[in-house]
Amino acid sequence: MKYKNIEITNDNYMSVITINRPKFLNALNIATIQELSKALFNVEKNKEIRCVIITGEGNKSFVAGADIKEFSNFTKKEAFEMSKNGQKNLFDYIESMRTPVISAVNGYALGGGLELALASHIRIFSENAKVGLPEVSLGLIPGYGGTQRLSQLCGKGIALKMILSAEIIDAKTAFKYGITNLIVSNKNLILESKKLAKQICNNSPNSIGNAIESINACFNFNLDGFEYEIEKFSDCFNSSDFKEGASAFMEKRKPTFN
Ligand code: CAA
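Above: the input record for the complex with acetoacetyl-coenzyme A. Below: its predicted structure, written as tokens.
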């Protein structure tokens, strides 16, 4: 499938999706959100892909936010649709995927850009990453899940400070706050992201999907996460992955998961 705003390379069980609007610091217009949703939907169906890396084109920016020029004249109704559709089709969708998504953050991740990274399962920042939710400086608030996911990830205190002050923080501060899992040099960002992706790809895809769903259950008020974990743990026993994993252990070899 041909995309206009993103590029995809699939290799070695990994899909690298690059947001490709460098002239606009990879700002997320609605067309890009739709392309990302479509691409990730296809990844989730593709058994040959076990991990996704999302990054931005160029050295300066991962994503500098939702496209301000596009929404500057939106009505309340249009803004509601933008936020609702974006959340449902992309940001919530990423979080719920059984295929893990790593955001490799190169430079600015502001507003919708940080929200994209927060929706991902893992975040790796380059040394030049600069991130924040500056929406209140535009007369807005985050609209792609930022108020919820930053609070879940870092706690209410950090979320309130960052969102109310519209501050833009560097990679070291983001690490201290627990926003990023890892900081690497700018030039090694994709290499290091692929290294982690490879480690993930060696594990059981079924277990990885069940683990993501169980961890997400912790934040779903309609579910008892402990009960959910029991279900997902026991489901693993019906899987060929567990048969292979247990056999490999007994036979003192590395497992191969198909
Ligand atoms: N939307 C649209 N265009 C954007 C953009 C955005 N979020 N961010 C950058 N651009 C465009 C600029 O308009 C500029 O294009 P032109 O040359 O055609 O004017 C180009 O990208 C390069 O940007 P700058 O010249 O501004 O680059 P800079 O190095 O001087 O500054 C920056 C970089 C600090 C990131 C600055 O571009 C900036 O502040 N961007 C906006 C950041 C922001 O407020 N993001 C939140 C958006 S709102 C949101 O995301 C809502 C939500 O939660 C749903």
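Notes for the reader.
Residues 129 and 251 are 45 Å apart (CA to CA).
Residues 24-25, 27, 64-69, 108, 110-112, 115, 134-135, 138, 140, 142-144, 146 surround acetoacetyl-coenzyme A (CB under 6 Å).
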